[in-house]
Amino acid sequence: ELLDVIREKPNVCKYLDIALQHISDNVLTRMHRNVSKKETMELIEKIREGVPGIHLRTTLMVGFPGETEEDFRELVDFVKWARFERMGAFAYSAEDGTYSAEHYEDDVPQEEKQRRLDKLMAVQQRISAEVEALKVGTVLKTVVDRKEGDYYIGRSEFCSPEVDPEVLIKADHRLRVGSFYNVHITDSDDFDLYGEVVD
Question: pLDDT tens digits for 37-52?
Fold first, then answer.
């Protein structure tokens, strides 16, 4: 029902944030996530089929206790398959009072955690660059958040504040912060878009 609303209502953004954490059944079980790789992949397929053009954000973790190199490769392959439009990742660190800190040995060396994190984010950076490049030539409804130097900084419906790519609009004309404008996207980089206001 939610997918129907997102697809049909023009005042609802085509954007979902789903914190998946991992994809390996081994790691998901140790995390007590109560979901399987198969269920996760089926959900992503259902969302993309139900809402064409939707942007998905997720957060993933590397280096969870017991994560093997095979588990990590499975995570990398999953990111390549899912092609998340938005993705953040972080390395596991034990937090006092959590189940994992009390029951698992933090057995993945810090240098290995960082290697895995860097590799995963490098994969996502390439995906993000490809996703953003496809927007060049389109017109996006954009809300202006602020002005910085020679640019107004805005967001389309596919961008959550402070964590996602932004739309940079050359400050050739005076724009009102908080207002919406149609912006023709003229260029992109790994994460951000560049454009100009059109009537």
Answer: 999 999 999 999 999 9
